[in-house]
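lol forgot to send this yesterday, sorry. struct tokens for the thing we talked abt
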């Protein structure tokens, strides 16, 4: 790609911004790279952009170049503990779309109060890595259909965005599953990062309010605690009252927030 943008001011150094690939922009000053921008398409079709630059004028020029090249709507995500970056995106015309609260979730049952939690009558918890691929994919599809018919993809974390191939064999070891009457009715997904991340808890709509999500969480946290992990990380949409109540009810501590911004 060769679209080039140069927007020097009278008192500012000349910075050239060029689109160097389908997904990458580069800012150069005196043959030295001083910043860059990237775009990626999420599996729900939305375009997310990011900019890495130390100086505000460079950030603004990269953002302007990307906005000139890309169709709207465009999205980005910022950590709310970084107000300077959020302010930079607002200068580019982005406005808040949604917020996710970050929680530190204790795994010790003495803190969470989950030590005595057992699955509801007739429900069995299938440990991570032991779920049958076919029924798990069927549950995955059913949950996606329920999301599409209700809140929509906008409020969902990456783990439940529509993916053409659904759950892959590599994913199976990340899912704890609830089984009832021979069917998979709920799941919990963990990501094995430095601080394990609870990326998703989802239960079929007709099985809500029976304690299945709490039982899945109790199992997952117990496994982590036995492995020597003191806490996990979870992110919850601020409008998801049920998930907020679930995590705060087990002693999770709010420890940050991510803000999704959009330019339409």
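and heres what i got for the seq, position by position
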């Amino acid at each position: 790609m060769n679209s080039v943008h140069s927007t020097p001011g009278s008192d500012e150094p000349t910075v050239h911004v060029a689109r160097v690939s389908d997904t990458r922009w580069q800012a150069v000053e005196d043959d030295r790279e001083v910043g860059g921008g990237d775009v990626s398409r999420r599996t729900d079709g939305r375009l997310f952009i990011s900019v890495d630059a130390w100086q505000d004028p460079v950030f603004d020029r990269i953002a302007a170049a990307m906005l000139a090249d890309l169709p709207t709507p465009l999205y980005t995500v910022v950590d709310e503990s970084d107000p300077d970056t959020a302010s930079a995106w607002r200068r580019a015309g982005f406005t808040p779309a949604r917020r996710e609260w970050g929680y530190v979730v204790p795994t010790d049952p003495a803190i969470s109060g989950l030590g005595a939690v057992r699955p509801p009558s007739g429900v069995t918890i299938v440990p991570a890595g032991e779920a049958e691929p076919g029924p798990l994919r069927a549950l995955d599809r059913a949950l996606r259909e329920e999301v599409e018919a209700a809140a929509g993809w906008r409020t969902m974390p990456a783990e439940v965005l529509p993916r053409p191939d659904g759950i892959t064999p590599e994913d199976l070891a990340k899912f704890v599953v609830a089984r009832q009457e021979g069917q998979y009715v709920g799941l919990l997904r963990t990501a094995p990062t430095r601080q394990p991340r609870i990326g998703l808890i989802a239960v079929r709509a007709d099985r809500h309010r029976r304690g299945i999500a709490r039982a899945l969480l109790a199992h997952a946290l117990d496994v982590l605690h036995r492995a020597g992990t003191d806490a996990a990380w979870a992110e919850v949409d601020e409008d998801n009252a049920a998930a907020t109540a679930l995590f705060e009810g087990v002693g999770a501590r709010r420890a940050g927030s991510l803000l999704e911004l959009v330019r339409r």
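The chain has two domains: 4-100, 102-256. anyway ping me if u want another try
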